[in-house]
Amino acid sequence: MSRICQGLDDEVRRFRERTLEGPYPYVWLDATFVKARQDGRVASLAVLVAIGVTAEGERQVLGVEASPGEDRESWMRFLRSMVGRGLSGVRLVTSDAHPGLRDAIARTMHGATWQRCRVHFLRNAMASVPARAREVVVSTVRVAFLQPDAPATRTQWAVVTDAYRERFPRLATLMDDAREDVLAYLDFPADHWRKVWSTNPLERLNKEIKRRTDVVGIFPDEASALRLIGAVLAEQHDEWQAGPRYLGWTCTHLSDSHGFGSGRGRRLGGFEGDGAEVAKAPVPTVRVVPRFDRGEDGLDHVGP
Predict the structure, then answer these.
(1) How many C-beta atoms lie closer than 10 Å to residue 242's C-beta?
(2) In 3D, which of 58, 186, 177, 20 has the Cα closest to residue 113?
């Protein structure tokens, strides 16, 4: 058994320490947690995971590391290790708004834009309003993400923010402060928006990790947890390499001179596909202005 574990440890180590052959224009970062015994007690163990997309549109697992916590130092160490292995050419990093993670990204991913995960933001928005208003408020905020281009999205965001400013000042302040980070994806090709505006691609991977680790329950130590999780990620990495490209056309030149910020929903210069632009039918702009009504119960009700 020890020889089998040693062989698996060697494979996982080679996978985790392999050279990264960039550039990787898009990177997603997140952490999941498992239980492991440490110093004779059961403790929560953070598992930091990074995935990315190459210039050819291929998705890869970039790294995994176990840590006692999810603080800034842990993320700094993790990100620096990937940069040391060759992580480069990063244009957009998508993650939640964990302060330590955000600071680590700013210190290590020089020149990259940070995309605040819109799913995590909507959870924050729900927490800022009374329970009775949450469903309608979040539905109204989501309308901004349905707009056909960047100007319409920013306009709808401002409309919703102003509409809620008096009734829900905490929500309005949150939307003001988060606007540039939540809408960072607008400066990238519209064909990519749904793939990069949240950590959903990584969340699905974390669910698979949890499915596998829940069978174990409590790991005897950190090494055993990393052995299993590393093997799961290596397996997923290989499946991605054998499958279709995550982005249907390659992104070899991600720069402002190649159409960034236009948000026109077309293939932009500098992106290699089949050589032809894809014409898209016009999408109507949707405008929703929240309103407030007093119901028969005497309470104020929020409506679109």
Answers:
(1) 7
(2) 186
Q: Which residue has the tokens 């993790």?
A: 78
Cα separation values, 274 from 60, 74, 191, 269, Å: 23, 42, 15, 12
Burial of 274-287, coded b for 16+ CB within 10 Å and e otherwise, reads eeeeeeeeeeeeee
Report d(CA 156, CA 151) in Å as an integer: 9
Interval 174-207: pLDDT, tens = 999 999 999 999 999 999 999 999 999 898 899 9
Quick one: three-class SS letters along the chain?
CHHHHHHHHHHHHHHHHCCCCCCCCEEEEEEEEEEEEECCEEEEEEEEEEEEECCCCCEEEEEEEEECCCCHHHHHHHHHHHHHCCCCCCCEEEECCCHHHHHHHHHHCCCCEEEECHHHHHHHHHHCCCHHHHHHHHHHHHHHHHCCCHHHHHHHHHHHHHHHCCCCHHHHHHHHHHHHHHCHHHHCCHHHHHHHCCCHHHHHHHHHHHHHHHHHCEECCHHHHHHHHHHHHHHHHHHHHHCCCCCCCCCCCCCHHHCCCCCCCCCCCCCCCCCCCCCCCCCCCCCCCCEEEECCCCCEEEEC
pTM over 0.85: no
For 283-298, write each residue's pLDDT tens digit: 455 566 665 554 544 4
Which tens digit of pLDDT belongs to each residue from 17-68?
999 997 999 999 999 999 999 888 999 999 999 999 999 899 999 999 999 8
